[in-house]
Amino acid sequence: MRRVIPLFAIMMMCNQLNRSNIGYAESHLEADLGIGATAYGLGAGLFFIAYFIFEVPSNLLMKRFGPKIWLSRICVSWGIVSACMLFAQGPTSFYVLRFLLGMAEAGFVPAVLYYLATWLPNAYRGRANARYAVGALVAFSLSGPLSGPLLGMDGTLGLRGWQWMFLVEGAMSVAIGVFAFFRLDSRIEDARWLNADEKRELTAAIDAEDAAYLNRHGDDRPTFWSVLRDPKILLFVFVYFSVQMSIYANTFWLPSIVRDIKGTNDVTVGLLSSVPWVFAMAAMFVLARIGDRTDRRKPLLIGALVAAAVGSYLAAVASPWLALVMLTVAAMGFKSISPIFWPIVQRTVHPMVIGVAIAVINSIANLGGFVAPYGFGVVKQQTGSTQWGLIGLAVFSLIAALASFLIRENEDENPGLSRKRNPQRPHSKYPHPS
């Protein structure tokens, strides 16, 4: 929790910064390269097509090479591609580079989630997910204050401001990826910073949970295709698809919405665009902690989706300043879902295929990152406004909230993991099924 999770948070910050910084360069890309709203939306979304295609293969290669090598490689790769965005000449090269960025980033989130599942008992994963996922919110909060001054370097050493932005932020990822290679250990037994008793106790706690899961699910190892056909996996995919639509529609179009506020410029747009993510950060920590303490995550998931739906709808019909407030409410909903969603998946899916299941859910659901930005671009091109796009997000979030009632948390099957229902915790510092 102290050695690895902060590093994952920094990697996640760089991950989100490099995939979403085009939101601040949108007007500059249109002015310099002729990339209009529809082309911008398509380029933003093509990232997720590549992400979908290469997510599962990347996850399988991670198991072969180990998280230490693979996570470091992913971080260095996306940093290089992101920096190469400075060479974009028009829509075609913009599309190609965004596709390559999606290819480079594919597998990062499933690899981190798989890593946490093999290192931490379930009772700690919600907070671990929240602490690492906070990197995304830090990225969204800092991307404006960081990107604004970089855009202001227009003309320095013959480069445009947006070229400096891609170069500097891409180089940051390369440096962090190299550092991660020397910081991470693939397996518990490889960790020199744990003593023999800590390794043995932690491994025993996780093995006990896996044994309990196997007892519940049976010994037959599911196949990749059975995972794809599993109704609960499809349900998880739809719910997370709706979440990703909200996340990336706001990621790529929030600066554009904020520009509707009179008197804003690159710097003030960046600062105001960070407001929803700051509040979302606090909401995410609160919900993750409640989920870990009560072991009742489904009601929190439904409530967060309802908040996202209400906030998105009211933002569509409000004045620009009030729309920013409502988008803050929506962000507090959809951005706090990850640390309560993934622990539900991890304790519901067969442990023998949890890595593949996470990759399948994340890769298919991330197509929402193509649908929403591209759809917003088309809507704005045709109507000059993002109002109907926000209403569409509200509808999807509401349907996802209703669908979440069908999720079963298997809450009676691992009583040893619930701190509320089993206050007599074992003497081990790692709780495991009794």
Automatic annotation (TrEMBL):
Keyword Ribonucleoprotein: no
Compartments, record wording: Cell membrane
Descriptive protein name: MFS transporter
Keywords tagged on the record: Membrane, Transmembrane, Transmembrane helix, Transport
Membrane protein topology class: Multi-pass membrane protein
Superkingdom assignment: Bacteria
Residue runs in coiled coils: none
Organism phylogeny: Bacteria, Bacillati, Actinomycetota, Actinomycetes, Kitasatosporales
Transmembrane intervals: 35-54, 70-89, 95-117, 129-150, 162-182, 233-255, 267-288, 300-318, 324-345, 352-376, 388-407
Species name: Streptomyces milbemycinicus
Annotated SUPFAM superfamilies: MFS general substrate transporter
